[in-house]
Amino acid sequence: MTLRNRLRLLGVAGLALFTVSASLPPATASGAQETRHPSGGGLSAVIRYTEYGIPHIVAKDYAQLGFGTGWAQAADQVCTLADGFLTVRGERSRFFGPDAATDYSLSSAATNLSSDLYFRGVRDSGTVERLLKSPAPAGPSRDVKETMRGFAAGYNAWIEQNRITDPACRGASWVRPVTALDVAARGYALAVLGGQGRGIDGITAAQPPTAAPPAAGVTPEEAATAAERLLSAQNADMGSNAVAFDGSTTVNGRGLLLGNPHYPWQGGRRFWQAQQTIPGELNVSGASLLGATTISIGHNADVAWSHTVATGVTLNLHQLKLDPADPTAYLVDGKRERMTKRTVSVPVKGAADVTRTQWWTRYGPVVTSMGAALPLPWTASTAYALYDPNAENMRMADTGLGFSKARGTRDVERSLHRNQGMPWVNTIAADRAGHSFFSQSQVLPRITDELAERCSTPLGRATYPASGLAVLDGSRTDCALGSDPDAVQPGIFGPGRMPVLKNQPYVENSNDSAWLTNAERPLTGYERVFGTIATPRSMRTRGAVEDVASMADRGRLRVGDLQRQQFANRAPAGDLAASAAAKWCAALPGGTAVATDGTPVDVSAACRVLRRWDRSVDSDSRGALLFDRFWRKASSAPAAELWRTPFDPADPVRTPRGLNTAAPVLGRALADAVAELRAAGIPLDARLGDHQFVVRNGKRLPIGGGTESLGIWNKTEPKWNAAGGGYTEVSSGSSYIQAVGWDDSRCPVARTLLTYSQSENPKSPHYSDQTRLYADERWVTSRFCERDIARSPDLRVVRVRERR
C-alpha cells in the first residue's frame, strides 16, 4: 500500500471513529413528543460514499443510524418517499385529486380516494400506535423504534437543508416533514400489502344493503378461478429467484448465495443500496425497500440472505350470518354482535371533504369484493369479513435486523422464530461455515386443512383447494383460527409448522411453493394455505432447478459461477418448444398461417429465424424477440392443449413437454406475432437489445432477460410500445442482485448490482450508472471492509447532522 493510501485509510477510519465516539445528546422522544417535534434533536452520522453513490453509514447508535439512513435515502429518493408518506397519511386526494390512479406501490387501491379512506382510517383508529406500544417480540424493539425516530429526523433534516432538483417534486407543497409514526405506517402498509392492502377498494366501498337489489355474486366455480388469478397476481410485479449452495458444492467448503429479487423498477417498492455500521454492534451491506430503516436483503461478514415472494395466502374470509333485523349486526353461536362503525373523512383538492363509513367485525373489515372478478355482495343475510394477521404485525424490521446481526444461518432461523415478522416472503441464506437454509416462515392465518374441511362455506369449498383462500363460517366459534403455542400472536402458525430445508447441496425458490426447494428432497406435509404439493411448476422454476442442480452436481463453485448464472439468459421455453415450432412452421402449406382476425400471413421467414435462434435472451440474440411475441400468445393456451406429454409429479422438472404442433393456438400466435412485428417495422431477426431497451437521459440502454412465460432467471417484464420501437421501458424484473461467498479473509467476496440505479432523479449522477452496468452485464465489487471503502477512487465523506 502506498503512503498516500495508508494516510487516506487512517484518515477515513479516524473520522468514522471520532463520529461514533463523540458525545451526542441521548435519544428522547415518545410517540406524542414525536408529533410535536418530528425531528428530535442533535442527531448526526457519517456517510462515506463510494462508486455508484453507494453510502456507507456509520453511527454511534440506532437513532443516529436511522438518521443517516433517512438523510441518504432522501438525497436519492425524496420525491418517491414523499409520495409514499402522503399515501400513509391519507392525503393523496388533497394534493392530486380523488379520482387519479395510485401507482399501487403501497396497496391495490384503484384511486386516491379509496387509498385515502383506508389509510386515514388506519391513522384515525390508532392501529400503528397501538402496535408500536406492544412489548417485543410482539411489537417492535426499542432499537427498531429508534431507527424510525432517527429516519424521520434524517429525512426532515435533508429536506430542510437541501434544494430539491428532481422535477417530480421540485417546489411541491406536499414534500413536508414527517414523524416516526409516518415511517412506521409505511412499514405497516408493506406488511398488509398482501392482505387488507389487496382488498382496499372492497373495504372502503362496503355499505349495508339498501332497498336496491345487491350486486350479483359469482358461482363457487367462478370464485375459485377468480381467487387463483387474484393470488397469482401477487407475483405479477414482485417475484424473485434465490439459491443457496452449501459447502459440499463449493471450491472451499464455504457457502454461496445468489439473490435475484424481481420488483418494480419505478415507485415506492424500489430497493435502495447501503451499508449500515454501528461499531461493535452492527455491520451489514445490502438493500432496503424505500422507507425501510434496516437492510431488507443483504450480507454481513458471515452470512448472506435473500427473499422470494412466497405462495402462502396471507388472508382469509369469514362469511357472516347477519341479524335479519339489522344488516350491521351478525350472529356468532346465535348471539348478536354489532359491527364497529368507523367514520372517515378525507380532504379533497378543490372540493369539500369526503366522508365515508367503514364497517369492522371481530374478524376484520367487511369487504364487498376482492377485485372486479370476485364480488362478495353484502346482502340482508350475508356479508364477508377479511382477516389479515399482518394487520397485527410490526415485526418485519426486527426480523431483518436479526438477519443483519446474524453470524450464520442458525441465527437467521432464530430471528425468524423469535420475531415471526415476514409477511409474504420466503428466506434463503448461506453462511461462511458452509450452511444453506430455506424457510417459508410467513405470517399466515392459521388455516389447517382440517379446519378448512370442517368450516368452509360452499364458496370456501371451491376457493380453498384451488387457491388456498379459505372462506370460513363466521357464525361458529368452533371455526376460529386458534393458536399455536410457539406463535408470537394468536391466529397464526408457529415456527414449528413452517416448511424448512437446511444444509442441502442447494436450496432454491422461484416463487412456486416450497415443494421443489431441492428436487431430490421434496418438502411435503404443510397445509394448503402455504402452497401446493405435487402440482405443475412454472417455467421459471423448472429452468432454475435444472440450472442450480447442474451447478451443484458440477461442484467447486465460486462467486463467478453465480455471476454467470445470473446472466446466462437461457430461455427454458425455447429449449422445449423452439425446434418443434420451427419444424412445424416450415411444413405449413404455402408458408402461411391465419391470424386471430382471419387474415392469412406469410410466416415462412419466421421459420428460419426460430430455427437459427440461440435459445437465449441476451441483448444481441437474434430471434429472441420473435419467439417472445409468439410464446406470450401461444402459452396462454391450457397446458393440456399445448403439450403432448402431461405433467407428471414423479418428473416435475421435465414435464409437461413435447410441443403439440396440432394445437390451433400455435398458428394464430405465430401469424399474430409476425404481423405485429412487420407492422412495427421490426425485422423478424432483429437483435433483442435493439428493441428491448430503456432510455435514460436520452440514451438507449439495451436490456437482456425475458418475461415470466419464457422461464428466464434474469426476469425482465418490459412494456410493449410498437410505435416506440418495441419494448421501451421495464416495469419490473431483476432489481437488487447479489452474489456472495467467502474466502479465508474477514471480508466477504460479494458482487452486487442495483439494476435501476440509486436515484429516480434524472439530474442525479446515480440515475442510470448501475443501469448501464446492467445493460453491459457488469457488476459492482462490494466495498464492505474499511480498507476497501478507503481505497474507493470515488470516496466522498460527509458528516450530516441536524441544525440546532
From TrEMBL:
Organism: Streptomyces anulatus
Entry-linked InterPro entries: Ntn_hydrolases_N, Penicillin_amidase_A-knob, Penicillin_amidase_dom1, Penicillin_amidase_N_B-knob, S45
Family, similarity comment: Belongs to the peptidase S45 family.
Gene3D superfamilies recorded: 1.10.1400.10, 2.30.120.10, Glutamine Phosphoribosylpyrophosphate, subunit 1, domain 1, Penicillin Amidohydrolase, domain 1
Protein name, as recorded: Acylase
Keyword presence, Isomerase: no
Keywords on record: Hydrolase, Signal, Zymogen
Secretion signal, residue range per the UniProt entry: 1-29
CDD domains: Ntn_CA
